[in-house]
Amino acid sequence: MNRIERFYATIERRPVDRPASWLGIPDEGALPKLYEYFGVDNMKDLKARLGDDIYPVEMPYHSPTSNAIYAAFDFAKKKSDGSNEHRTLTAPGFFEDYTDASAVDLFDWPEPEKYIDPEECRKVVEDVPDGYAVLGVVWSAHFQDACAAFGMEDALVKMFIAPDLFKAVIDKITDFYLRANEIFYKATQGKLHAVLIGNDFGSQQGLMVGPEQLREFVFDGTRKLVEQAKRYGLKVIHHSCGSIYDIIPDLIGLGVDAIHPIQALATKMEPDRLKNDFGGRVSFCGGVDAQYLMVNGTPEEVRKKVTELKETFPTGLIVSPSHEAILVDTKPENVEALFDAVGCGKKRKRRYGSVIAVNPEKLEEYKRLHAAVWPGVLKMIYDCNLRNYSIYFKDGYLFSYYEYVGTDYEADMAKMAADPETQRWWDVCMPCQRPLDTRQEGEWWADMEEVFHTD
Fold first, then answer.
1. 374 — alpha (psi -120 to 50), left (phi > 0) or beta?
2. pTM of the entire structure?
C-alpha cells in the first residue's frame, strides 16, 4: 500500500498492511533536537526519514492582528504588548460585560475574504511532496473562540444567564469559519484528502461543560463544518483533547470520520474501551501517551505500547502521539521507536560512501560536467531522498558521500535508475570512470564500510 491508500483504508476501517501513522505538528522549539537526532534540517526530510503517512498543511491567514487562523479573533480586552497570537481563554474577553444579544454587533468581526489568499492556499498544498495523505488543518474552533470572546469562566456562565448572546457570538464565529474554509477548499479542490477541525471539550477527568450545553450551543456549528468538508469529498478528523467519552456518540452522529486524539491517560479513553464501544462506527487517531511515555519512557516502552495498539486496532487507528504537537521535552529516540514499531519503512543506513577510479585523460571533463550538473538530475537526486551528496578526488580516485533520508532505499535507487535523464547523465559520465576490480557484483561505484562517524 502507498501512503494515501493506507490512510483511506485505516480511516475506513478496512484491512491494511500496517496502520497509518502521523507525527503530528511539532512545536517550533522541538524541531532543532529532532533535526539533529535524525540527521536532517527540514520538515520534509524529517517526515521522509520517519516514513510518516500524513502531511498537515495549515490554512494561510494574515490579518493586522494575527498570522494564524486559530487566532483570527482579537477578543482580548487587555494586552501587554499589543499582540494576540494565542486565544484569550483565561483572559477577560470583549463580551465579558454584555448580556444582550444585540451586543454581538459591537465587535469588529474580521472578514476572511480579506485575509486568505486563494493562490497562497494552492501553493502551500502544492508544495507537499508527492505521495502523502494531505491533511488541511483549519481548526475552526468555534466553541473555544466563543469562550475566548467572554473569557472562559464568564463564557460558561453566559450559557445559562445570557444564552441568546452566547448563541449569537458562536454563530458569528461559525459563519467566519465556514466562509474561510470555503476559500481554502475551493482553492485546493482535489488536492486535499482530509481536514482537521476541532475544539477542546474535555479535561483529564471529564467534559468541561455538560453534554446538554454542547448539544444546545455547539454541535449545530460542528455539523455545518463537517457537512461543508464532506461536500468537497474530504475525510473529517475531529480534534478534542481530554476525556470526551460521553459525547463520542454525538460526534459520530455529526458525521466525523475519526476522533483525535485518544488521550491515553484521560478518564474512559482507554483504547480497548473505545474499540469495544465505538470501533465499528468511527476511527481514532493517537493513543501513544505524550504526557508521560513520550517524555519519560524508554524506546522499548514506546514500542510495547504501539504493539498493544496494533493488536487492539488492526485497523481504524492512525497511530500518533496523543497530542497533535510534539513538544520540546519529547525524546527523539521515542519518536523513532514509535515509527519503527508501526512498521514505517525498512531498517536502513543513513550514510553512504563509495569509491571509483577516474580515467586520467577524462578528469577535467568529469570536473566540467559536475560544475554544471543537469537540473533534472539534481531534482531526481532530491526526489530519491539523497542529501549532502558530495564527490571528492584524490590520487586518481573519486570518493562519493551522501545521506539517505527516505524509507525504502532499494525502491528509491530503482526510481533513479529508471529515470531517462539520469540514464543519459550516466551515459556521459561513466566513460570518465573506471570501476574497482574489488567491487561487489552489481556495483559500479564500490560501496565502502563506515569505520567512524560523529555528529
1. beta
2. 0.79
